[in-house]
Write the structure tokens for this entry.
Amino acid sequence: MKALVTRLDSFGDVLLAGPAVRAVAARADHVTLLCGPRGEPAARMLPGVDDILVWDAPWSGFEPPPVNRAETEALLAAVDADTALVLTSFHQSPLPTALLLRLAGVRRIAADSVDYPGSLLDVRHQRAPHAHEAEAALDLAEAAGFPRPDDTRLRVLPPPDTSALTGPEPYLVVHPGASVPARAWSPGRCAQAVRELTAAGHRVVVTGGRGERDLTARVAGAHGLDLGGRTEAPELAGVLAGARAVVTGNTGPAHLAAAVGTPVVSLFAPVVPAERWRPYGVPYVLLGDQKAPCADSRARNCPVPGHPCLESVTAHDVLAAVEKVMQA
């Protein structure tokens, strides 16, 4: 049996699909993962994936591309599967993807769908209320005939040794950036946390992408080790795997930390529900006002002056949370 699993949005979303992918891989002869460009680096790290198709869907992402007939037809020609799982977030519809997969000749398609699917789905599943995204994906896989694996934690392929970048253990990681501004703690607060953690005797490594070098330099200051722009996804996994704890917002590295088994101090802006997106399968502490006025708004930019849901968190709060998760 050839199986296809789709998860078309971000890096973290693809990591959260990992347990469901492994459930499919346990029964299927071949597993293809269909993902978007932002999810591709995560897809290449998931156990159980045999092939990857990358397609920028017009209904996904913060800056979706226009509909392109030639690219869509190329995708239809590339799909080769007997059965498919269409994984989406709770607020997304699987039906556009299901339509394309049906046109590509996939005979059996399963998805969570509130909307009436007509003939687009063979398994129309209803996700449990308030289910974590990883749990919802596992539930759908099980409904489609792929039982849960014994290990349902997030996993990635073994990362490279990054000790040449980080220096010797032990250390903590602070990752200040976020793909959505509303989910980021301010640079000033992050820098205060690095100073506080250092003063408490911890060595701190600051990570970030290529476009975040100015941010990581400011946050690291004279106290932290600045690795901004020096790690691709596999190397970042290695850095996170060596850390005693990771301090970050609700963003991809939080899920990557969970996938390598590292505890997370999560500065979680409530623009999306923590019950669905919190760090999964590892010790964690959630910081931030989960009842702030922005709760469940899915806002990209904070709609409340002063970003109080996260700016109310202090460096001392982070230090206390780090000490707590390291003892868990």
